[in-house]
Amino acid sequence: MAPRRVSSVAGSVAGRYSQEVLVCQFTDMMNSRGLLWSGGDPFSFTLPVFLAQLAVIFLLSRTIYFLLGPLKQSMLSAQLIAGIILGKSFMGRFKGFSEELFPPGGRITLETVADFGLLFHLFILGIHVDPTMMRKTEKDAVAIGLAGFVLPFTIGILAAFVLPHVIDYDGALQESIIRIVTINSLSSFPVITGLLADLNILNSDVGRIATLACMVNEYCNYVVYALLTVMNSVLRNKQWYTIYYLLWAVSFFVLYRYVARPWMLHVARHVPEGKPLKEFQFLTILILAMMCGFFTELIGVPAGIGAFVFGIAIPDGPPVGSYLVQRIDTICTGLLLPAKFAVTGLNTDLFSLAANGSALIYELVIILGYLGKFTGVLLSSLYFQTPFRDAVCLAFVMCCKGIIEVTIYIMLKEDKMIDEEAYALLLLTMMVVTGIARPLLSSLYDPSRRYSSFQTNSILYSNPKNDLRILACVHNEDNVPTIINLLEASNPSRNMPISVFILNLMELSGRAAAVLERNVYRGKLTSMRSRSEHIAKAFNYFAHKNEGIMTLQHFTSIAPYASMHVDICAIASDIRANILILPFHKVWEIDGTIGSNLPAIRTVNQNVIEKSPCSVGILVDRGHIAGNLSILPGNAMFHITLLFLGGADDREALAYGSRMVGHPHINLTLVWLRLWDQKKSFDETALNNIENISIDNDMISHFRANTIGNASVKYKEEMAKDAVGTTRVLRSLEDGCDLCIVGRQHEPDSPLTQGLTDWSECPELGDIGDMLATSDFRFSLLVVQQRPPGTGFSNENTLEPMPSSHSVFVSDR
């Protein structure tokens, strides 16, 4: 067997600041000549070592992330822990392991590629930042952001000047402490928004305040850091460096504001709707990001900072920002970025912390910074009358740190602005504090608490003299015709007006901050490119045809699907909605086959059903209700079947169906499905079930009494002994039915539904609804769930009524 060769050799030499390792790399040792039995050793060559390093780091960090999953820990913590395990604190202490997997030459290659991944990850983080948000920041967020920076910074600076009178230490330690104080006061916008998104509270009340407050905090930190840099250069008699630094900052701002940003806005405006960027445009943006990194490296600033600033110039969200994030994120963030933070852990020696007494001083200053930030955010939040629990959660959020802070720690250590001990303590304290805060936030903060009270809000329990308040959710333009026809079927009139609130739902993509806003569309209805404006145009046209008997308001929510229900429930609570309408996650083609299945929308529907402050209707559209059979005047009669088995949800469905009676283009058939031996059911059910049956009977009797003599209303009573009989009745609904309305839940022990759950695919539709939503049926379906009595929503913090000029009022029918 041939003797083992090595790809590089290393030795100690005098470096810029201290003794450093000099690596001599062999240029012909890149690709392996074969396995050990072929006379070669793959670990003697650069490429096999690099591939092995990436694989080991990825697998170990993912394993740790999986194990820490129940504790709600971040991927960054898992990557740092993986690096510490592989580094000189643990596995790196075994010489054979270190020399084989992480030789000096192999580490340089790994760090170079990792820095490339970090550059593009910071570029992506820059894309997520919306610089215009500062103009929308309210005074409470400004005050909280300022308090979260000023108090920890003030306490840290005081400690830096007081400690020398208590403990003797040199001037280098003093300078390190000041830098630690500055960076410890930072709450980074990308880090905080990423944390909020991980915990599914990005679009909650606490999430929105934290998003704006951390942006204010970050601006303060950059201003103070720039001032300290200038002052430091002046004190060191480096006036030319000061001028150089200021010229760089001004020139970079000019390029961003007057060249990069206008050009990117121009590109975004000229991307065809629904189309991606051209390949040439995509590659040009990538090259410019690398050139910005190259430019900042020339002036002594890390390349990632230049890429980050260029990313801010790119409009967030679709079409440009979302496309860039989707194309770049998987490789750079998923594969290369873990290597960067694993390298960070590799260079962290936990055993160096006991080397001298300065560790206690460093840790004291770091802890004071965290305590100052927590106290500043907590007190300022309470001053603006934030609930105590929410204020505590907000303080925990602002204390969390992540990738931006770690990047700055690395930069400070590489430039010898802080020593190894300070670097290790900053990393460890950050991991401990953030690691404690994340599970605490997950357990302490529940956004749905804001709509928990003792008021029921539903159609059945609403005052018939008041308007019916409907919140309709729209995911895409295909939902619009369906919902418009359902609104028409709701039969708005002067005696029974309706207030419609349209919530346009969009997935958060290519941006960091969630959006929930009320939209106002004025002027003539012209052709518009924006999806939101297309949707608004359709609903506005419908509202104009119902002037005087209907009001219309538009809202837009841009949020992750995992927490989109928070916005839906918040709007429903604020507008005091009686029912909210959700499109089903499956879309059918004209031939009856399933065209698309969107699991993310299904998750939204399931969360809303669980948390909703009002009744919910899931609308299953098979094309009939949105196609040729329209409810709008001038078309053929529209046939609605209301299936009633009994229970609160069916009573809510009947209350909604009762409002449709009297529409000139609707025929309504009430089908009451009853158990064959009703007396036996009374003997076998509990008292509360008997009471429910009595209420059902009274409601049916009331409905029949009110519709006597109405030719457009039919009543059928069907009997069944078991689920087989129920299925037979459901099959009979196929003839002459365009839309079926049914309650979601029924008596679980009823013989009419026993066994139907064995084949259930969509439990959110209930037993009957799930069967009616299969491909065996052709009609559309509305599944209604009533908000249980005694679990309604709070009326606090409701939206102000919109001025009449902002609403669309329409004339009597």
From TrEMBL:
Q: Where is the Cation/H(+) antiporter C-terminal domain?
A: 640-786
Which intervals of the chain are annotated as region Disordered? 790-813
> Could you mention a single GO BP entry for this protein?
potassium ion transport
Q: Which residues form a coiled coil?
A: none
| Subcellular location, principal | membrane
> GO CC terms on record?
membrane
Entry keywords, A to Z: Ion transport, Membrane, Potassium, Potassium transport, Transmembrane, Transmembrane helix, Transport
Q: What is this protein called?
A: Cation/H+ exchanger domain-containing protein
